[in-house]
Write the C-alpha cells for this entry.
Amino acid sequence: MSVSSTASASGRIDRRFAALKAEGRAGLVTFVMAGDPDHDTALAILKGLPAAGADLIELGMPFTDPMADGPAIQAAGLRALGQGAGMVSTLDLVRGFRRGDAETPMVLMGYYNPIYSYGVDRFLADARAAGVDGLIIVDLPPEEDAELCLPALAAGVNFVRLTTPTTDDARLPAVLTNTSGFVYYVSITGITGAASASAATIQAAVDRLRRHTSLPVAVGFGINTPEQAASVARIGDAAVVGSAIVRQIERNLDADGRPGPGLVDAVLGFVRSLAAGVRNARK
Amino acid sequence: MTQPLNTFRSGPDERGHFGIYGGRYVAETLMPLLLELEKAYAAAKADPAFHAELQGYLTQYVGRPSPLYFAERLTRELGGAKIYLKREELNHTGAHKINNCMGQILLARRMGKTRIIAETGAGQHGVATATVAALFGLPCTIYMGEVDIERQAPNVFRMKLLGAEVKPATSGSRTLKDAMNEALRDWVTNVEDTFYIIGTVAGPHPYPALVRDFQCVIGDETRKQILEAEGRLPDILMACVGGGSNAMGMFHPFLDDPDVRMVGVEAAGHGLDVPNGHAASLTGGRPGVLHGNRTYLLQDQDGQILEGHSISAGLDYPGIGPEHSWLRDVGRVEYVSATDREALDAFQLCARTEGIIPALESSHAIAVAARMAPTLSKDTLLVLNLSGRGDKDIFTVAKHLGVTM
C-alpha cells in the first residue's frame, strides 16, 4: 500500500469530475441510506441511480445518533437499523453495486463511531476492496485528522471535507489540507433537510472557496427541488440532494413500513427530475 | 499525551485530550464556535473580575457554601465509617447543577450571546439552566426526551414556570442522549446568538474541563470543611456518576492527595448482566465516540449506541465524561455500581435516618456507602456527595413501592 499518495487509488472521483468539466455541466450527487427501507430495495435503488442521472453516489452509514441530520435522514437511519443494517451490510451493498457499475464514484457518509468500532484499518481495507472511493465523516474535523483522515489517504481512499458558512478564511486552509476528491460546501448553518440558502449567498461562498482550492466544489444541504438543484448547478461543480430523495422512500412505504410496489420507480423518477434540472442548468 | 507524572490534575492537553479520551468530534459548523468558546473561557479564567462576579452569585443567589454535615444517625445505623454528607441538595434549585449553570451563563454574557439552550435528563440541569436564564432575562430552550418529560413532570412544569420553552426530543430512545442530539442540532442551526450550556463533564473540548472547573467548588469547599471538622483529609470520597459532573467536582481537587480513595457509583439498573438493562458505561461499556468526545459508551457490536436503563433519569446516559474514562484507566478512581433496587432502599434509608430525601441519582452513592461503611473502621472518614434532593422523584419511588398517589 502506498503511504505517500493522496490521490484515490480508484481515481473514479477525479475522472468523474474531469468528465463533467469536459461536458460543461455540473454533477448530481445523490444520497441514500444503506439498508433503507431494506437491503434489497436499497440495492435496487442504488443500481438504478446512475441511469436516472446520478453522477456520484453518497451512501449513508446508519447510526443511532446522527447529530447533524434532520428528521428525514434520522428516520432513514432508524429504518435501516430496524432491518438489521450495519457496517457489514453497508459494505455488502457497495459490493453489490460495484458488480454492475465500475465507474460511478461511491462515497460513504456518516459518523465516526461505527467505523471506530469496526476498526479503522480493517474498515479502510474492506471499504477499498468493496469499491468505496471516498469518505465524508461528519464528526471528524481537521483537529482529529489522525483518527481516520490520514490513514484513509494513505490507503488510497479520498477524504472529502465539509466546509460551512462558519469556516472563515483563517480556518479554510486547515480544513482544505488533506481534503481530496472534492469539497462539500454545506450551504446553511443547520441540519440536513432544513432551510435553503439563496443563490447569491451560495455564489459568494463558492467564490470564496475557489480562491482557496482548485478541487471541485459540491454544494449541499437544503436542496429539495429540480429548480433548486439547477440553481446550485449554475454555481457549483455539483449539487447534492439527500433528504428530498429519502422522503420519496418514506412516502412510498405501506402502513407497516414495508416498501410499496412503486417505491423504486418513484425514487428514481424523482432523481431523473433532479438530473434534468442539473443538466439543463447552464443551457 | 504529555502529562506530568506527578499530577492527575493537569488535563486536558491543548487538544482537549485526557489520555486517549476527550477531543472535539463535532461537525465543522461547530468547530469555530468551540475555538471561540475555548478562547473566551481562557480569558475569563484569568480574569479576577469574572471570579468575583461568579463568587458573588454563588454566595448570594445559590446559597454557597453548602454545609458538610456529619450524618450521625446514618453512621450509627451502618455501624462503621464516619459518614459526612456534602449538602449540594441545599443549593438553590436543589442540586449541584446550578454551580455550572451560573458559571456558563456569566461566560455567555461575556461573549455577548443572547439565547440559551440546554439538554436535560432528570430535569435538574434544565431547571438550573432555566433559572439562570430567568435571572439574567435571556430566552431559553430546553431539550428533553419525550420519555423523560413523562417521568419528570414536576421539573417540566418548573422549567415552564421559569419562562423556558421545553422541546421534546422525539427521535431515537427519546431520553437524555436524544435531547443532547437535539440541542446540538439547534446549536448548529443558531450559531450566531446561541450559547449551549452543557450540563455535565462531557461533550467536545472545552466543555469537560469547563464544567469540571465550575463544579470544583464542591471539592474545594469539602477540603476546607473537613479540615475544620476533623483536622485531616477524608479517607474516602463517594459520588454517583452519570455524565459525572458532581463526582468530578468532588474528586478533582483531591486527585493529587494519594491517601484519599475515590469511588464513583454508576447506575446498574436491572443489573449489569441484563443486556441493555443498565447505564454503567465504565463497568459495562467500551470506548467509542459520541457527542463530541471519545469516552466509554454503551454500544452494540456495530458501534450503535444503546439506550441504557436506570430508575434515575439523571444517570440514564450511555456515555460518561472523558476525564472519568481516563481516571478509570489509570486506576486513580474506582468505579462501582448500584442497582435500581439498591438505590430505592438507600433512598428510604436516608429519608428515615437523616430526614433528608435524596435524589435517586445520589441514592446510588448512598447505596454503595451503606454496603461499604459497615466493613470500615469507625475512624474512617467517608464523605458522600449528596448531589440533589429527591422531591422530584417521589412519584417514581411511590410507583415502585406500589403506592398510588
